[in-house]
Specification:
The chain is α+β, with helices and mostly antiparallel strands and about 260 residues long. The chain has two domains: about 15-60 and about 170-255, no CATH class; about 75-150, no CATH class. The protein is built from six helices and eight strands; from the N terminus they run H-H-H-E-E-E-E-E-E-E-E-H-H-H. The chain has helices spanning about 15-20, 25-30, 35-70, 155-200, 205-230, 240-255; strands spanning about 80, 85, 95-100, 100-105, 120-125, 130-135, 135-140, 150. Strands 3-4-5-6-7 form a five-stranded mixed β-sheet, with no helix packed on it. The chain has a three-stranded antiparallel β-sheet with strand order 2-1-8. The radius of gyration is 26 Å and the shape is elongated. The two termini are about 25 Å apart.
Amino acid sequence: MNTDAPSEKLPTFLETFAQSIVRRDWYRQAARVPTRSAVRYAVLLFLVTGTLTGAKHAMDAHAFLGELAENIPDDFPALTIEKGKARTAGPQPRTITSKPVTLVIDTTGRQKSLGEDVADGFFVSADGVLLKRSGYEAEALRFSDLPDTTITRQAVLRLIDGARTAVFPLAIAGSLALTLVVKPAHLLLVSPFAFLINWRGKQGWKPPEIFRMGVFALTPALLADTFLTLTDLHGPVTFGFPLAVLAWYWAFGLTAPQRPAAVAS
């Protein structure tokens, strides 16, 4: 009895998700589904995992901004911006240490950055604002992009409140866009390994079949990637782990026995 009869459509999303993780023989069937069905599954998978990771980043940012707003001191100095340059009264540089960040203001030019001792914070110069997170500095705002204005404590609080409102849709949209670009790129990055496995093992899979199996091998890879993000374990050490999972499961499917007859892609 031929157990590898061509399948006209995929099982439900959850069934496909589970089978892609635990069943080696599923990849023989996956190689034969219509390409459009594999693409639809991949897009839905990207939407689910991208939304989860985006929501996680949004919650972290929302909490960070909330804590920041609660700790802005009452004596926060007013900052006057005129013709793209900022100035403020009082002695400078002025350091305001407030959980969860440190704020340093120096519009005189004597100090150029937060310094190595500060891991997270903002540095306000005459030209703009530098944001530093986990030791990395980046320009967050140029005053030349702003009209002449005076930034007070209340204005900062309103800005933070607006950012907290916008952070969820922006973070989720950004995560989805990144997922839709990066994860297919991962597939292309690992594909030479998959073709090598197919050639060395004399498996005889055709390129469309190999790529369809790769689409479903993205399931455990994205699951691993999402888990690392949700548990705050993502970092330089774990960066390549989802790629390793993708490569392993792709080889897992390619070397499954009883190759079925090829069908048109």
